Amino acid sequence: MTTVSEAVARRSSIRAFLPDPVPTPLLAGILRRAARAPSGGNLQPWHVWLLNGPAMARFRAMMAPRIAEGITDPPEYAVYPERLGEPYRSRRFAVGEAMYALLGIPREDRAARRRWFARNWDFFGAPAAAFVFVDRGMGPPQWSDLGGYLQTVMLLAVEAGLATCPQEAWYLHHRAVRRFLGAPQELMLFCGVAIGHPDPDAAVNRLHSDRAPEAEWLRVVED
Ligand SMILES: Cc1cc2nc3c(=O)[nH]c(=O)nc-3n(C[C@H](O)[C@H](O)[C@H](O)COP(=O)(O)O)c2cc1C
Question: What is the CATH classification number for the domain harbouring 161?
Answer without folding.
Answer: 3.40.109.10
